[in-house]
Amino acid sequence: MTNRTVVTTGAGAESPLLVRARRSQGWGLGLLAAAGLLWVWFAVLLVTPYGEESGDCAALIAREYDPADPCTELRDWPFMTALLGGSVPLAAVGSAVYASGSAARRVAEHLDTAPRA
């Protein structure tokens, strides 16, 4: 059994295809926003000072890499890499879902305005 929701507006009823297309666009934007938040979190970790006590080590972007520096060991590199790695599938799926929703919306709007025989 399929769920055929028809949203009514002041101008009349919307087609189920248009409703699904808008929902897909919303999901796509949500996934893209989640990927963007992961990038922002990564950027904050990259530009803020860190250390055992607050601000012992300068921000990663503000200093050169030195393997002998004890600050290098304090930064949680696997977590930062996971943030970037986690944003890639979210951005890819979000882009695909948004694009398919946009295409379906164009088709639905065309079908709503096309003359019928």
Gyration radius, in Å: 23 Å
Question: Which strand order do you get reading across the main beta sheet?
Answer: 1-2
How much of the residues is beta strand, in percent? Answer: under 5%
The SS-based structural class is: mainly alpha
State the shape: rod-shaped
Which parts are unreliable, with pLDDT below 50 for 5 consecutive residues or more?
5-10
Helix content: 55-70%
- How would you state the average pLDDT, rounded? 84
Please summarize the sheet with the most strands: 2 strands, antiparallel
Q: Write the H/E string, N to C.
A: EEHHH
- Helix segment count? 3
User: What is the first-to-last residue Cα distance?
Assistant: 30 Å
Model description:
With 117 residues, the protein is mainly α. Helices cover 63% and strands 3% of the residues. It is built from three helices and two strands. It has helices at residues 16-47, 70-74, 77-113, and strands spanning 8-9, 12-13. It has a two-stranded antiparallel sheet with strand order 1-2. A hairpin with a 2-residue loop joins strand 1 (8-9) and strand 2 (12-13). Helix 1 (16-47) runs antiparallel to helix 3. The radius of gyration is 23 Å and the shape is rod-shaped.
From the structure above, extract its key features.
117 residues, mainly alpha, two-stranded antiparallel sheet, rod-shaped
Question: How would you summarize the topology of this molecule?
Answer:
Elements lengths: L7 E2 L2 E2 L2 H32 L22 H5 L2 H37 L4
Antiparallel strand pairs: 1-2
Helix pairs in contact: 1-3
